Amino acid sequence: MTKILENYVEGRWVKSAGGLSPIHSALSGDVVAETGSDGLDFVGMADFARKKGGKALRAMTFHERALMLKALGQAIMERKEELYDMSWDTGATRTDSWIDIEGGAGTLFSYASKGRRELPNDRILIDGDTEVLARDGTFIGQHVYTSMQGLALHINAFNFPVWGMLEKLGPTLLAGVPAIVKPASATAYVAEAAFRIMIESGVLPEGALQFIAGMPGDLIDHLTGQDSVAFTGSAATAAKLQQIPVIAREAVRFTAERDSLNASILAPDAVPGTPEFDLFVKEVAREMTVKAGQKCTAIRRALVPAALIDAVQDALSARLAKTVVGDPRSEGVTMGALVSRGQLADVRAKVAELSAVAPVVYGDPNGADDGKGAFFAPILMRTDDPWKAEAIHEVEAFGPVSTLMPYADLADAAALANHGKGSLAISVFTHDGATARELVLESGAFHGRMAFLNRESAKTSTGHGSPLPVLVHGGPGRAGGGEEMGGIRGVKHYMQRTALQGDPGLLSKALGEYLPGAPMAEGTVHPFRLRLGELEPGYTLKTGSRTITLEDIEHFADFTGDNFYAHMDEEAAKASPIFGGRVAHGYLILSFAAGLFVDAPPGPVLANYGLEHLRFVKPMKPGDSMKVSLTVKSKSQRSPEMGEVRWAVRVTNQDDELCATYDLLTMNAV
What we know:
The protein has about 675 residues and is α/β, with parallel strands linked by helices. InterPro entries: Ald_DH/histidinol_DH, Ald_DH_C, Ald_DH_N, Aldehyde_DH_dom, HotDog_dom_sf, MaoC-like_dom, PaaN-DH.
């Protein structure tokens, strides 16, 4: 019985009222599912997302949202075999689906981890340092991020129905924004199954996620300036979406990850016999055949030194000859099918267009066809004059297709790579740092990611085409101009940066973090005697003073072995334009500072695990005295038992001049 996909609308699963469209198996052509969205109340979905889902997500802290992402990833992993079984009909091999399914879950795990480590256990994210706006420090500015109060519409591509959905949901949900997911029809049955697993996990607040199995109707017409659209797909479709009047009228945030003619460059030093030459051949072949070449990052243009083009063609053809195309469930098959008969027809048409300027040198674009499945063997084309073969820089055959072309020198290689007018990824195979630098300078602006691959990283590299959750995924120009993922950078896309202005005390209370210039509260209890829940930002300890002697400096030098001239050579130190005589070691000052503010017996402070933003502002000389102010800057609970306390430390001299400043990090009992 054919499965009819359902839409998840306002907290319930709903079938289309009619107008169902069939989805065919890429292997047999049989109908595996039907999809549609007739009769849905798209305005109601938008309102439900904003009023129900958004409100619930914004009530959660970053850490609570991160734990939610972790649970969603675990739910996917626990039921991954269900998704693997469904993915065969998309034409994917087990390896292809591993990237999609477990790679998708891994993206959620990555965002969960970064959310707990890099974001506060709060709902406001402070951005950058405080800006002093008045000489007396009573008026300051501080940038912050808060969650957008709309929805995110995710329109996904067919090639990665699970990963493509989860790589957008990770940063969106961590930012506290609800999402409506619209998958590509050809593989919507896999996306719906993965979505259903997340809903059934029970960890999502009501309204956080909704799902449209068919077309999105008039949903886009009802978006506002608090909403966003994230699209993955063709440049033509992206252009149509961007031209919808509401996108411009309401300044709806729109990002697109579009098709691009990604390039790979074999550098001049990577001659036959080098590891880089072999890696290049292996990677181009892999990018042509993984997912049957249906990857937005796949290598479409392989650039090689003119003198090496014949050697590369022979090696690459031999490598491609080992590809076994067929039913991915069969033993020995290494490449499955294109996603549909429609995609097969499109790829054949594009190859015919390209072959007019770049003849096929390996494969048969008109090979055997059973009329049911969408199987298509790898095709390698070649042009010896890439500057006259304009189509290879404009037309993408979204399948196991790549074009080999020569370049004259590095400048020519960079210009050819850039002639694609913007790509998601470029890779360079070289063992020469100067080559890498030149290409970064000449080509960096045209590509969203540059992968430099060589013998040093061969065993650990994820290769040319693997987007990673900690790095931005997108590209300029033809690639769409958007950025997805990128760790916390991706989260900020779904948040609004606002410049706050006011007095330090008021802003400190509003943000829950001590800002420079805010009132300090001194108490009778040493702060190291207070548990995490008892500490409040602004609570300060001011220590007594300690005089630094020449004997202290010399003992520290002898004990540590740090005999830098500024500490031990009076004449040389006097001649310095900075010191004007012997000065105390900076780390001696830090050590004495700890001695002044530390309360030694066991207590709520469990560990000192680092310091940040250290600056030595003014040297301290023998005879100077130092004192410390230790202020609770912020706190963030990390587990039920403990949390991080960030302390603002200021070291001053006998004239109250600032000598050193830094943030101290401790782990404290709750």
